[in-house]
Amino acid sequence: MISLNDMIIILTALVFAGLIAFTTTPMARMIAYRVGAIDVPRDNRRMHKEPVPRLGGLSIFLGYTLTTLVFCEFTPTLVAMWLGGAIIVVTGILDDVFRLRALIKLGAQIAVAAIAVSQGVVIEFINFFGTLVPLGVFAIPVTILWIVGLTNAINLIDGLDGLSCGVSAICCASLLLVMLLNGDGVSALQTAIMVGACLGFLPFNTNPAKIFMGDTGALFLGYVMSLLSIEGLFKFHTAMSFFIPLSIFGLPIGDTAFAFIRRILNGKNPFSPDRGHIHHRLIDMGFNQKQSVHILYAICGILGVSAVMFSSERFVEAGLVIAIGLAIFTIIFIMLKNPSARVASGLGLEENHIRREDKAEKPENEQAS
Q1: Which of 13, 280, 297, 350 has a CA that sits 20 to 30 A from residue 188's CA?
Q2: Residues near 144 by Cβ (< 8 Å), separated by ≥ 6?
Q3: Long-range contacts of 63-66 (CB under 8 A, 24+ apart)
Q4: What is the three-state SS of the chain?
Q5: What's the pTM?
Q6: pLDDT tens, per residue, the chain with 369 residues
C-alpha cells in the first residue's frame, strides 16, 4: 500500500512538474521563432490557418526531466528515460526545424528503444488470462516494437490543438490510478510527474493553440509512456494485465493501426501522412476542433476507466464500461451527423452564434464602404 506521505510527495511532484512546464513554455515559444521551428499550414491535413511555433515539447521535457531529478530515486529505468529522452528530443527539435525523413526518425526511435532494453526495461512475459507466457528470445524484439509503436502512435494522433497532449495526460492519469491500486509507488511517482508536465503545457496548446509541442514533445511523450507502461503494467501478475495497456492506449494505438492498414491497402507508404485519422473524420462530419478533441478525450477516458476495472480484476464491470461507452458514442455519431441536430443539442451553438454576428456586421460594413 502507498502511504499518505507518499501520496503527498506524488501530488507535490505533479504540481512541480506542471509549474516548470507552464513557466518554460513561453521560453520554448521564443526559441521556436528564433530557430525557425514554425508550422506553416500548406495542406488540408493541418487545421490551423496561421503559422504556429513548434518546440512546445521542450517545456514538457524540462518539466519531466527536472522534476524526476529532484523527486525520484536513481534507477536504470530513469537512466533510460533521461538518456533516451534527450536523444529523442534532439531528434524532434531537428525535425521541427528541418523536417527529417521518416527513416531517420525511425532509426532514432529504435536506438532509444535499445537504450531502454540495455537498462533492463524489457517485456519478459505476458499475463494472458492468468497464464504467464514467457517471451524468451522474442522479449527484446517485442519490447522494441512496443516502444517504437507507442512512440509513433502518440506522434500520429497529434493532429488537432491539444489532442495529443490531452490524450497523453488522460493515458498517464489512467496509468497512475492503476499503479496506485497495485501499490507501485515508484512508477506512480514517475507517471504523476508526466501528468503534471502535460497539464502545465496544455493551456498553451488548447484551441486556438499558441504553440504546438511538435515532434519534440510527441516523440518524447510516446517514448516515456512506453517505458512507464512496461515497468508499471506488463510486470503485473493480474489475470488481465495483457489488456490493461491496450485499453489505456487504445485510442492512439487503434488510430495508428487503422492508418497503417488503410495506407497499405491503398498502395501507399504506411509512413506517408494522409487525412484519414479519426480526428480528421470528426472534422469532416462537421464538428469543430474543440468538439472533436473533447469527444476523443471522452473516448480515451472511458478506455482508461475500463483499464482500472481490468487491473482490479473486475472483468464484468470493465466490459460494461466499454459497452456503455461504445453504445453512447455510436448513438451520438448517428444523431449528430445532421448539422441541425448539432445545433439542437447545443454543440453547434457557437458556430451558429458566430454566423449571426457575421451577418449582423456585414450590412454595416457594406454601408460604410
Answers
A1: 297
A2: 110, 113, 114, 117
A3: 63/17, 63/18, 63/19, 63/20, 63/21, 63/24, 63/193, 63/196, 63/197, 63/200, 63/201, 64/17, 64/21, 64/193, 64/194, 64/197, 64/220, 64/224, 66/17, 66/20
A4: CCCHHHHHHHHHHHHHHHHHHHHHHHHHHHHHHHHCCEECCCCCCCCCCCCEECCCHHHHHHHHHHHHHHHCCCCHHHHHHHHHHHHHHHHHHHHHHHCCCHHHHHHHHHHHHHHHHHCCCCCCEEEECCEEEECHHHHHHHHHHHHHHHHHHHHHCCCCCCHHHHHHHHHHHHHHHHHHHCCCHHHHHHHHHHHHHHHHHHHHHCCCCCCCCHHHHHHHHHHHHHHHHHHHHHCCCCCCCCHHHHHHCHHHHHHHHHHHHHHHHCCCCCCCCCCCCHHHHHHHHCCCHHHHHHHHHHHHHHHHHHHHHHHCCCHHHHHHHHHHHHHHHHHHHHHCCCHHHHHHHCCCHHHHHHHHHHHHHHHHHHHHC
A5: 0.88
A6: 788 899 999 999 999 999 999 999 999 999 999 999 998 877 666 666 788 999 999 999 999 999 999 999 999 999 999 999 999 999 999 999 998 998 999 999 999 999 999 999 999 888 776 778 889 999 999 999 999 999 999 998 988 999 999 999 999 999 999 999 888 899 999 999 999 999 999 999 998 999 999 999 999 999 999 999 998 887 665 556 677 888 899 999 999 888 888 888 888 877 777 777 888 888 887 788 888 899 899 999 999 999 888 887 777 888 888 888 888 878 777 776 666 766 676 665 444 444 444 444 444 444 443
